[in-house]
Each structure stands twice: as C-alpha cells, then as structure tokens.
From TrEMBL:
It comes from Paenibacillus gyeongsangnamensis. InterPro entries: AKR2_Oxidoreductase, NAD(P)_OxRdtase_dom_sf, NADP_OxRdtase_dom. This is Aldo/keto reductase. Residues 16-215 form the NADP-dependent oxidoreductase domain. Pfam families: Aldo_ket_red (PF00248).
Amino acid sequence: MEKRKFGRTGQEFPILSFGAQRIVDDHNCTEEEAIQIVNRAIDEGITYFDTAPIYSNGQSEERLGKAFGDRRSKVWVVTKTIDRTRDGSWRSLEASLKRLQTDHVEEWRLHDVRTMEQLDLCFAKNGALRALIEAKEQGIIKHISLSGHTNPNVQLEAIDRFPFDSALVALSAADHFIYSFAHEFLPKANEKGLAIIGMKVIGLGRLAQWYEKALRYTWSLPISTAIIGMESMEQLENNLRVAKSFKPMTDLEKLEFFKEITHMANPDVLRWKAKDWSNKEEWAERL
C-alpha cells in the first residue's frame, strides 16, 4: 500500500487505516472476530487505529486492547474525548487507557467539535484542551488532535487558535457538495503542517454502490490517510484489495463521479452536516 507522511510528526502510514467503531456487538462482530480482524490488519501493514470511549460504551476500546496484546508497540492508537471540560476529559482518558490496556496513546482528539460554542468551551480556562495539553506534557499522549463532521469553519478557527498536530474530518465524495472540508480546510491545514485523516468515506454506507470510487476519491485528496470502519474479515480484505491497487482519480474521473452522485447530496445521506444531527444515529450505522 502507498504510504504518506503524517503531517509534521515524522511518521508515515498506509492510506488505509482502521476505524474501530464497528468491531463491536452492535455490528454483529464478536470479540473473537474482532481480535482476528485487528491482527490481520496489522499483518497487512495497517498500524493506525482510531477509536473512542463512546463507541458502544467502550467496547471498541476494550476489543482493541485485547487484540493488540504484545503487538502494542507496533500500532498507533488514537482515542477521543467528547467531554468539553478539563476534568471530565481527564476522567475519560483514564478510563480509555484502562480499556485499551496501555499507559499512553499516540493521539488524543477533541471529538466532533461542530459549533463555535463547543469550540469556545474546549478552549476555556478549564476546557477540554487544557487536559490534552497537560496529558501531552506528562507524556501520556504524544499528539493533540481534533475532529469535525459538520462545519469546516469551526475547524478552520480551531487550527488558527492552536497548533493541532492532526485533524480527522468528513471527506466523502458526497461532502464535496456542501460545507466541504476539501475546499478551504485541506489547503489551510496542509499549509500549517497538520496531518489530515479522512472519514465518512462511504457516507454511512450510502455510497456503497460506488464503493471503490468512493475510496479512490478520498485517497486522491491531499490527506495523510483515511479511516474505514470494518466489522468483518471480508470488509477488511476488500479494503486492502482496493488500497493495494489504488491509482489517484483524474480530474475527469472526479467530474464523472460527481455527476453520478450529485443526487446523494441530501439530508438523508449527509446527516452529519445538520446542526441538530445526533451522533447516536451514526454510531448505529456505518462510517
């Protein structure tokens, strides 16, 4: 698989990374299957694993912790805090570390910061960002990150206020048509040296009909890697197959693809663009 630099961190990762949201009972993935899938991914060179405490009430983190075992040093682990306060975020991290069976994580993210009000809470004197800074100073985390699904202006403001190391943002082909992170955020983030991780690549499964084109579109953007949710060995193998044969889309191919999916730019598909969208809906579906 093609590897790319991960911002200014000095690391590099394959274009295909692992979204661990779906290796849980809620997606009919057993613990045994989850452990097999994760280890197969590592065998194939995937080392970047993204999770969060809110994914199935911590089960995603628990299963990653069990799956890594003595291979922990071979992987880059990312978790998040949805809490907007310093103290709440510290409690969240402590619980995540226990579930992940580790004493540190490589990245810790401010999870789904979608409004300026939420951003201000994170940046307040006793806001969540204070916990991230303290954790990095103590060596419990290595890099500070944030994620955004909804309004790229929020993430643009965030990276102007603080030198984040990375950002996880929605970059499906359908996102191209409204509040696109590809239009303004990617150029600014790349200019600042952030590592950019794409998500929502298959659009909650709504782009499954164009599965390979959807992957190719996101990987053709100037990003470091993209996390793809996988709940079965078959999905992992399919993702590996497409990643290993990846060729960037030409401008003409992108144009033709956009023509095919323009009708998908609607509230049913792009739910994460709505101000009143509830993540709980997404957590029951696909990345």
